[in-house]
Recover the amino acids of this structure.
């Protein structure tokens, strides 16, 4: 067979094939050679080889013959071969060889290097004019590699499990090979007619297939370009694009439809209706019905930017309230401008492309920069993302304002995973925050709030409550501005916001409260720095600097100009009884005055006494400004009180300083003063009584030692006890409480970075610790006796009432002792008279004393004292009480024998009462959480002379209170009675009592 | 492809073969330069590449099993 066909075969092919067979056929191994037929070994081998060669060559020819010739279209190939024509599919695959190879390389290799290298080699190959059947050779190589690839594939694959075909496709298809291929094919076209057409056409088809299945314009033009050259190309193209072939009659109409759509697209993208796409409302775009679904889906994606743009441009037109909103609108309209720029470029491209197509000339430019709907969609993709993000922001910002809006956008820029969104939001933020930073600037440098839409996180409430829940009057510092938490944008931290708030508030306070606007202006001029978003370091540092400067200035002003610390010191000196000589002098000079009822006190006498006390004490060396503020007046208390209860010192605080020493603070000072004053008064009274006892003991009392010595001894013991109590109490309050709190206050205030806010806090803490520890508590004393709240009462308050009780008992006891003294004096006088009488009698020569001598003495003694002045009222009050008070005996028939026992019993009762109350108080103190207060109890009871009693449970306390009240009432009556009973002695304490009764 | 200068032509042909050889190495075809040039000339002369591939594969299959031992023997 081979022999018959041999002549028809081209010589060159035969030679080449034969050589190929030779090279592929190895030398036969000796073992496999049959030696029988040949004598010579070499001959045998040669024969065997030639035999085998022939056989294989024959087989090769047979194989080749069964296939159609590759280069049938090749005019250079022999005509005999051209007659056979294979299937078109085979042709296709031959012509696709480069793509096949590329795909294979990509599939089998993880990295695109090999494919890229192939592309390079391929492009070099294309420039070689030598070969006409490049595709055939490549296909051959491809086919050959396939076999080996099976083995290699496994290894390569395992090495690269995560191969991204799509990326590679993009990389090679778009950037690398495509334009190069195009130019080369075109270069071929001009150079060599025949093969170039097939090559250009064949490469065109696989190219357009994966990349743009719908690029009708381009494909059509490519096909047109191929058509005139060769009929076969057309056929191939048709076969290659099955979607194309059946719809070829429609292709033109589709093309025109797309052209129309393209022409309208720029308008649609600007939110304008066109003949094909019409906006039915703000959010509805109507698509034409009769389009194939690929175009519809493209239009769907293209409709998004159209609609978003429409919505956003409406938003930009709007006039929403708020500066931040306005800046957002400005930023968005800026973005929209750039979007419109994109649309304009797009439009230019489309026009150019359409014009080129319209001409009908297949210029290279059209094919290269073909504009299709799909391409438009790709071009607008980024813009669409931006538009989408903006419309999301706009949507969410509707009910937000100021800082919330900034927080919203900031949230996008920091916590969104997409870097595009993050970067875009960041860009937007730079514009949107501008008004915020303007406000911030004004606030921290000028202390002015310029926030017409209430967007800043500092708010100036229009309605200022006259008093807050604590009953503190408003102050410029506390209530003029408020920090609004929900408006703090997330770009600043909470501490930062507080700092900013304090800076502005301080500046404002310096300007308005301290009238130092000159400094503020100078400061703002000097420190002014442009603030803007993103410059966090500058912002932080400038804020810190501003904070320090402002605070230092404010403290300086407070200290220097307004003498805050001097005022605090003066308050401690005068209201907290720090200036001992002054207080003692004041009390001494006022005591006789204050024993009178409250309504007979006159302001001018009080101020005169105050002035006297100041002049005569060390207080005179204090600055005039401080002394000017000191004032004495009567509290508006209920009728019937004596001067002691109502008297108060006052220290006037005016404008800027009242930020620290608030009206509430002043009231606390007054409370403490009143309590201290009361304690002081008791101490003073006890002291004067003690003095009289001591002086009297040498004179008057020594003479009545026989009858009253035991009574006096007991009385002195009790008074000593009381004095001990009062001294301990005073010591505790003045030293343990006030001094230690003052020390804390000093340390707080002398801190370097102390702010006005810190000062206020420190001062409030100081006052609180004084009122709390000084047994005063924060609630007022007037609540005593309201049994309903008995169980809810604070322990401090009940301490206060207990202390008041004890102080009252002391005063009553003092009165009783005064009564005893008067009695002693009366007794002494009686004895003196008796002695005098005896002496006169002796002188007259009479001896002894008769009954008649006693009676006139009683009459004399009654007449000589002031007891008789109020005889009528007492029996009545005594009758009501029904207790054995001295009143009942205070009749015309009262005598000394009855008077003494009542006095004694009264003294005994009072001292017992004092002891029991003190025991209760000590019992309470022992269970205090505060160490200092427990210590007070220990100090008072250092030698365990008292037995502290644990108080009963609150359930029974109301009944207890009733009893206490009852007892208290009785006691008071007793006290007054005792006092009045002894008025005969003419003590100073009896004078006011009489006055009250009248 | 008329080329007046035979020297140039040979040069060009060598270049082409170089390129093709590289590609063939890339593709792991196991063809040496001679074989490759033979294939090129065959295809240039109108042999169907598919058929040629089949031939080469066939020949390799035929000689494959004996080839390795023969190489071993030659060494």
């Amino acid at each position: 067979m081979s022999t018959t066909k041999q002549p028809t075969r081209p010589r060159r092919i035969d030679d080449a094939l034969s050589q190929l067979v030779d090279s592929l056929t190895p030398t036969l191994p000796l073992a496999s050679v049959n030696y029988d037929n040949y004598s010579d070994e070499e001959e045998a081998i040669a024969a065997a080889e030639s035999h085998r060669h022939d056989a294989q060559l024959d087989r090769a020819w047979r194989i080749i013959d069964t296939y159609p010739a590759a280069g049938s279209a090749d005019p250079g190939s022999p005509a005999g071969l051209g007659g056979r024509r294979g299937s078109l599919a085979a042709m296709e695959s031959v012509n696709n060889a480069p793509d096949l190879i590329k795909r294979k390389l990509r599939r089998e290799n993880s990295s695109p290097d090999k494919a890229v290298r192939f592309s390079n080699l391929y492009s070099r190959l294309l420039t070689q004019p030598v070969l006409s059947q490049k595709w055939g050779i490549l296909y051959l190589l491809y086919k050959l590699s396939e076999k080996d690839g099976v083995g290699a594939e496994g290894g390569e694959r395992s090495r690269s499990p995560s191969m991204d075909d799509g990326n590679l496709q993009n990389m090679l298809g778009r950037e690398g090979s495509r334009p190069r291929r195009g130019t080369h094919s075109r270069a071929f076209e001009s150079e060599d007619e025949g093969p170039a057409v097939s090559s250009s056409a064949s490469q065109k088809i696989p190219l357009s297939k994966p990349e743009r299945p719908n690029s009708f314009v381009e494909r059509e033009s490519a096909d047109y370009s191929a058509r005139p050259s060769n009929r076969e190309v057309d056929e191939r193209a048709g076969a290659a694009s099955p979607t194309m072939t059946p719809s070829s009659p429609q292709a033109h109409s589709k093309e025109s439809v797309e052209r129309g759509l393209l022409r309208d697209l720029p308008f649609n993208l600007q939110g304008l209706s066109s003949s094909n796409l019409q906006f039915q409302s703000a959010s509805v775009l109507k698509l034409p019905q009769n389009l194939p679904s690929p175009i519809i889906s493209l239009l769907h994606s293209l409709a998004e930017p159209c609609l978003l743009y429409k919505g956003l441009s409406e938003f930009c037109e709007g006039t929403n309230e708020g500066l931040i909103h306005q800046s957002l609108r400005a930023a968005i309209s800026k973005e929209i401008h750039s979007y419109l720029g994109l649309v304009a470029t797009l439009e230019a491209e489309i026009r150019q492309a359409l014009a080129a197509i319209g001409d009908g000339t297949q210029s290279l430019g059209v094919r290269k920069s073909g504009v299709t709907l799909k391409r438009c969609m790709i071009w607008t993709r980024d813009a669409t993302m931006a538009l989408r993000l903006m419309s999301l922001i706009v949507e969410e910002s509707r009910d937000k304002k100021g800082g919330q809006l900034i927080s919203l956008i900031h949230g996008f820029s920091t916590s969104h995973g997409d870097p595009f969104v993050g970067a875009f939001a960041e860009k937007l933020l730079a514009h949107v925050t501008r008004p915020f930073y303007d406000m911030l600037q004004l606030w921290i440098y000028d202390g002015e709030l310029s926030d017409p839409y209430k967007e800043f996180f500092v708010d100036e409430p229009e309605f200022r409550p006259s008093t807050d829940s604590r009953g503190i009057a408003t102050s410029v510092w506390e209530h003029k501005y408020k920090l609004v938490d929900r408006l703090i944008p997330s770009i600043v931290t909470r501490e930062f916001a507080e700092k900013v708030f304090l800076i502005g508030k301080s500046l404002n306070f310096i300007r308005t409260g301290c009238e130092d606007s000159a400094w503020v202006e100078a400061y703002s001029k000097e420190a002014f720095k442009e603030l803007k978003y993103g410059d966090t370091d500058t912002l932080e540092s400038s804020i810190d600097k501003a904070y320090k400067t402002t605070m230092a200035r404010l403290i300086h002003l407070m200290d220097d100009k307004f003498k805050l610390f001097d005022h605090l010191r003066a308050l401690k000196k005068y209201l907290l009884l720090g200036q001992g000589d002054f207080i003692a002098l004041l009390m001494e000079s006022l005591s006789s005055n204050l024993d009178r009822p409250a309504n007979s006190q006159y302001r001018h006498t009080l101020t005169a006494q105050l002035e006297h006390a100041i002049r005569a004490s060390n207080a005179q060396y204090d600055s005039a400004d401080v002394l000017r503020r000191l004032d004495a007046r009567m509290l508006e208390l209920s009728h019937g009180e004596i001067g002691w209860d109502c008297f108060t010192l006052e220290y006037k605080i005016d404008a800027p300083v009242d930020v620290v020493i608030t009206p509430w603070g002043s009231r606390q000072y007054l409370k403490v003063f009143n309590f201290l004053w009361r304690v002081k008064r008791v101490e003073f009274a006890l002291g004067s009584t003690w003095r009289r006892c001591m002086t009297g003991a040498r004179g008057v009392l020594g003479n009545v030692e026989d009858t009253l010595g035991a009574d006096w001894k007991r009385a002195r013991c009790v008074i000593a006890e009381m004095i001990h109590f009062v001294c301990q109490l005073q010591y505790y309050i003045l030293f343990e409480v006030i001094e230690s709190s003052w020390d804390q206050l000093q340390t707080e205030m002398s801190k370097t970075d102390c702010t006005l806010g810190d000062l206020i806090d420190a001062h409030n803490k100081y006052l609180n610790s004084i009122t709390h520890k000084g047994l005063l508590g924060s609630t007022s004393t007037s609540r005593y006796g309201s049994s309903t709240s008995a169980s809810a009462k604070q322990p401090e308050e009940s301490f206060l009432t207990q202390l008041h009780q004890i102080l009252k008992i002391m005063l009553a006891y003092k009165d009783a002792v005064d009564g005893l003294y008067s009695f002693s004096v009366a007794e002494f006088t009686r004895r003196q008279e008796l002695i005098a009488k005896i002496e006169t009698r002796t002188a007259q020569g009479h001896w002894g004393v008769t009954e008649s001598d006693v009676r006139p003495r009683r009459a004399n003694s009654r007449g000589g004292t002031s007891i008789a002045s109020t005889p009528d009222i007492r029996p009545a009050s005594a009758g009501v009480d029904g207790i054995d008070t001295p009143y009942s005996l205070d009749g015309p028939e009262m005598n000394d024998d009855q008077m003494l026992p009542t006095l004694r019993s009264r003294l005994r009762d009072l001292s017992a009462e004092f002891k029991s109350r003190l025991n209760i108080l000590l019992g309470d103190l022992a269970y205090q959480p505060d160490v200092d207060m427990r210590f007070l109890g220990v100090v008072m009871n250092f030698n365990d002379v008292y037995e502290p009693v644990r108080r009963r449970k609150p359930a029974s306390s109301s009944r207890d209170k009733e009893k206490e009240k009852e007892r208290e009432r009785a006691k008071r009556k007793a006290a007054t009675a005792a006092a009045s009973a002894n008025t005969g002695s003419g003590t100073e304490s009896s004078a006011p009592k009489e006055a009250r009764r009248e | 492809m008329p080329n007046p200068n035979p020297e140039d032509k040979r040069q060009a042909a060598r270049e082409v073969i170089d390129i093709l050889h590289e590609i063939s190495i890339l593709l792991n075809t196991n063809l040496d330069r001679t074989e490759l040039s033979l294939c090129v000339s065959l295809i240039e002369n109108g042999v169907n590449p598919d058929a040629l591939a089949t031939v080469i594969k066939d020949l390799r299959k035929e000689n494959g099993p004996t080839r390795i031992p023969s190489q071993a023997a030659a060494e």
